Structure formats: structure tokens, C-alpha cells
UniProtKB/TrEMBL annotation:
It comes from the Bacteria. Catalyzes the oxidation of 5,10-methylenetetrahydrofolate to 5,10-methenyltetrahydrofolate and then the hydrolysis of 5,10-methenyltetrahydrofolate to 10-formyltetrahydrofolate. It comes from Myroides guanonis. It catalyses: (6R)-5,10-methylene-5,6,7,8-tetrahydrofolate + NADP(+) = (6R)-5,10-methenyltetrahydrofolate + NADPH; (6R)-5,10-methenyltetrahydrofolate + H2O = (6R)-10-formyltetrahydrofolate + H(+). NADP(+) binds at G164, R165, S166, I234. Keywords: Amino-acid biosynthesis, Histidine biosynthesis, Hydrolase, Methionine biosynthesis, Multifunctional enzyme, NADP, One-carbon metabolism, Oxidoreductase, Purine biosynthesis. This is Bifunctional protein FolD. The gene is folD.
């Protein structure tokens, strides 16, 4: 069994981006600028947005954090988004999800200028991705593609089983791995909460990507020998003995499944850090594309 070391690969990618930023500086060009919009004080969201901003500083990007009260109205938030759309200093921005219940998430995502949508959540980017056109690929699926490539995992003709049909991970992942060329050409099965006999399906999988959010869902008897397992789950499970009062737990029973897997991601240290690295990569791409247009 070999670990798919997201921590290490994400650091490699950050170092590669740092080199590109330095070249931009040397040429006297503007460096990439990422803005993050955070509404309210959700604990996990604060952690993630914090590490996005810190990563920007590490690699030499400019960053702006727009931290808004959870009492903000949808209309007021739309005004903030339009300001970011218009602001020429900002190359890309994200609106951290989930949003408070009184705000229509779809309406907000639709308001983001697609050329600054470094999360790749706007339907224009989703459609372009599905049609192999230039777009922003959502950071988590993009990070999984990078892991597959950098560990040279064969995908052509393989049976890939995706668990979970979210717009952010499962659905785009199923499209990306069935595209022509590498890392694609997979025969993809997209499974979800209504899937019957899921263990029968996962047992026939060469590659399993689980983005369900149910701790320790995938057990040893649900996979075949030699399977490649990518665990996107990151649930905070309360644990009084843990330093922070919780442990981050994946969808995969690592203890059992790692005994049969050829490759497997750890949680934490797998897909999570890759998500952040690919958000930075998308921001670099946004800057480069904007510069070309000028
Ligand atoms: N607009 C938007 N874009 C997102 O990309 C987005 C979002 N909303 N909402 C929430 C999810 C989740 N997400 C993670 C990013 C990093 C880690 C990460 O670095 N995880 C570490 C552990 C971090 C910890 O201590 O919790 C790891 O797995 O090793 C996890 C999850 C981005 N998301």
C-alpha cells in the first residue's frame, strides 16, 4: 500500500506557484490577488478560509478577506459581490459555503463573474468543464486529478466508482474522469444515497472516490484487493480525548481498507490540502488569463 500524500504534493504545487509569482514580480507585473468572502462564524469555515489566506501569504499572492455578519441580507451580499466583480485589483474570489439559510446560494453563485470564479462553481464554468473548454475546474476534483497524475495512476478503461453526487465534488468528478485522455477514459459509476447494493458496485471498482460525509462508511469488505481509494470526507467527530475536542474523520475505514488498497489517501493530509493548492492554482490561472486579455 502506498499513501497518496496530499500534504506533500500540495507543498510541491505551492512551491511551483511561488516560482511563477517570483517571475511575475521580476517582470514588474501585478501578482495574483485572491479574495474570500466569509459570512458568519461557522467554526470549520473560519479554519478553511484562514488557511486559504495564510497560503496566499506563503506563496506571495495578495489576499483580501471579507468577513461579513451572518445578519447580512441577500441583497447586501449581492452588492458586495458586484464590487468584487468590478474591482480590477481582484483576480479571483470565492464565497465560502455553506451560507446562512436566508441567503439563496444559487443566486449568489450565479452573481459571481465567471472569469473570477476560481471555485469553478458558476454554471458557465461547469458547462465549459463538461464540454472540455477552458474553464475553472472546482478545486477538490482538480486536486484529485493532480494526485492521480503525480502518482501515475492508470485510469484508462478502469472502473471508477464515485460516491456522492454533490455539485462541488461527486458530479464534476464523474464528468472529469470520463473525459477523453489522461487522467480520464474511465468507466464511471456515480453512486449516491439512493443507490441499491452499493457494496456490490464498490467491490467491482478499480478506483473509488468517496465524497459522502459519512465517517467510516467504506469498510474493508466493500473493496477488492489492489483498489485505489480517494477519501474526500472530512467530518468533525466529537472526541473528548482529542486536543481540539473533535477528530477529523474520513468516509473510509482506513484501518480496514488500507490493508487491501494499492493507493489510499489519509484524512487529514490527503484531499483537503490539495483543495487549497488548486484554489491557488486557479487564482494564478485567473491572473494569467486576465493579463492576456488586457
Ligand atoms: N466556496 C467554497 N469553496 C471551497 O473550496 C469550500 C467551501 N466553500 N466550503 C467548505 C469546503 C471544504 N473545503 C476544505 C478545504 C481544505 C480542507 C483542509 O485543508 N483539510 C485538512 C484539515 C483541516 C482541518 O483541520 O479541519 C486536511 O484534510 O488535512 C478541508 C476542506 C473547502 N471547501
Amino acid at each position: 500500500m502506498q499513501l497518496l500524500d496530499g500534504k506533500k504534493i500540495s507543498n510541491d504545487i505551492k512551491n511551483e506557484i511561488t516560482v511563477e509569482v517570483q517571475k511575475m514580480k521580476d517582470r514588474g507585473e501585478k501578482v495574483p490577488h485572491l479574495a474570500a468572502v466569509l459570512v458568519g462564524n461557522n467554526g470549520a469555515s473560519l479554519t478553511y478560509v484562514g488557511s486559504k489566506v495564510r497560503s496566499c501569504e506563503q506563496i506571495g499572492f495578495e489576499s483580501t478577506l471579507l468577513h461579513l455578519e451572518d445578519t447580512i441580507t441577500e441583497e447586501e451580499l449581492l452588492v458586495k459581490i458586484d464590487e468584487l466583480n468590478q474591482n480590477d485589483e481582484i483576480d479571483g474570489f470565492i464565497v465560502q459555503l455553506p451560507l446562512p439559510k436566508h441567503i439563496d446560494e444559487q443566486k449568489i453563485l450565479m452573481a459571481i463573474d465567471s472569469s473570477k470564479d476560481v471555485d469553478g462553481f458558476h454554471p458557465e464554468n461547469f458547462g465549459k468543464m463538461a464540454m472540455d473548454m477552458e474553464s475553472f475546474i472546482p478545486a477538490t476534483p482538480y486536486g484529485i486529478l493532480e494526485l492521480i497524475e503525480r502518482y501515475k495512476i492508470e485510469t484508462s478503461g478502469k472502473h471508477t466508482v464515485v460516491i456522492g453526487r454533490s455539485h462541488i465534488v461527486g458530479r464534476p468528478m464523474s464528468i472529469l474522469l470520463s473525459r477523453k485522455g489522461y487522467p480520464g477514459d474511465s468507466t464511471v459509476t456515480l453512486t449516491h444515497s439512493r443507490t441499491e447494493n452499493i457494496a456490490e458496485i464498490t467491490r467491482s471498482a478499480d478506483i473509488i472516490i468517496s465524497a459522502l460525509g459519512v465517517p467510516n462508511f467504506l469498510k474493508g469488505d466493500m473493496v477488492k484487493e489492489g483498489v485505489v481509494v480517494i477519501d474526500v470526507g472530512i467530518t468533525r467527530v466529537p472526541d473528548a480525548t482529542a486536543e481540539k475536542g473533535y477528530v477529523i474523520t474520513g468516509d473510509v475505514d482506513f484501518e480496514e481498507v488500507s490493508k487491501k488498497a494499492s493507493f489510499i489517501t489519509p484524512v487529514p493530509g490527503g484531499v483537503g490540502p490539495m483543495t487549497i493548492a488548486m484554489l491557488l492554482k486557479n487564482t494564478l490561472l485567473a491572473r494569467e488569463r486576465r493579463m492576456k486579455k488586457q
